Structure formats: C-alpha cells, structure tokens
Amino acid sequence: MNSFYPGPKEGFSPGGDGGSDGPGRSPGQTPFQVDDSKASTSYANFCRITGTPEEVFIDFGINLQPFAPPAGPIVITQRIVMNYYTAKRLLQVLHLTIQRHEATFGVLETDVQKRMRGGPSSGGQP
Q: Which helix (H) or strand (E) holds 84?
C-alpha cells in the first residue's frame, strides 16, 4: 500500500513523497489512526471537475442514461473540495492503484465500443 491509503484504520500524514509504507517510511510521515465509522458510501458514474486558482471541485452524480445524451439534468450528489496539493496526491495514488489493478487483472479499456463483444475491434468474435 502507499501512504495516501495505507490500510483501513491507519494513515500517514501528508508529508513525504506519498509512496512509502512500512519500516522504510519517509521521515516526514507519522502514523495516525483513522475512524471511518461515520463515513458514508456513494456510487457515481459521472464526475465533473472544476477549479479556482486555489481549489479543485470534484462533483459526483448518477447519469441515468450513460450511453445516450441525458434527457434531464444530471443530479450532483457529492462534492469534494480540495487544494491542488491534495489533488496532486490523489492523482498519484489513483494512478498507482490503477497500475496495480491492471498488473493483476489486465488493462482497463475505457472505450465501451472496444469492450463490447462483437464490437469494432473484436472483428465479430465472441
């Protein structure tokens, strides 16, 4: 794991390089406990990112028609606001997380047409 998300109940301060855990931790990282008992879980298939010179706004919602233009507005259900330093750390840890997932399970194809059986890139083969 990495220092942004080391485990379910412990974390590390945002100092250091954001990539080490265990005995070889960066000197600026101190362990701390995380209480996630009040955390809520949401699902989103839509994300919009905007920003100001100081902050990044990440809006999450549900698009009820993900394969066609939406008939009505997409309702934003969650908004996360963070500074650019935290956003960069989030970018790095998401990148590492996806790299590990793809190394284990294979590449995640984001083009739906390429993932479909019988789609353009599969040549009609199942």
A: helix 84-105
